[in-house]
# Entry
Amino acid sequence: GESVGLHLPTLSVQEGDNSIINCAYSNSASDYFIWYKQESGKGPQFIIDIRSNMDKRQGQRVTVLLNKTVKHLSLQIAATQPGDSAVYFCAENMGEYGNKLVFGAGTILRVKS
Amino acid sequence: DTGVSQDPRHKITKRGQNVTFRCDPISEHNRLYWYRQTLGQGPEFLTYFQNEAQLEKSRLLSDRFSAERPKGSFSTLEIQRTEQGDSAMYLCASSRTRVPYGYTFGSGTRLTVV
# Structure
């Protein structure tokens, strides 16, 4: 079956340090991936996406790395801030042109001041 | 554009009652999706529309659930004869059909069935 999973349910980092959140996916045919941030009581907020024809994509303070050989995604957050504390999900496109996303269970990121 | 809007934000209903939620997508997006999220889990796909056509439904969408998007703009999700197991956050999202998809979620409707 197809699934997206996260290795670490909770990640605690010191303010100012870099954070790395990992995700494994099982469907080698998936061609599009998104990272979302979700704060309590709110909907998922888009952070960054990457297509399968890329290995790396950078945004503001965030970088997503895609390793298709081992079917692994990571989200790197530079200079982590207290406002980054949230649950982070990776999502995998399971349909043509992004018509259905499959989410993992999420990683809780806690930033210590 | 103010993003994807969902109404109401919270709904408490008695078991057996019917409820209806509304979603207004980003105006330039012609795809609209419904997801359900329970505590500690990621969102689960329920169904999606392209314009007014409902193109895919998950097996999670039982006969008590129905979604419509009559004019290809806003959408409604109705749950009939609610059960306690229906308690969850119901999320709506919208996107374009081509890159950049702009896949955007609303803030959700929190349903509690008592």
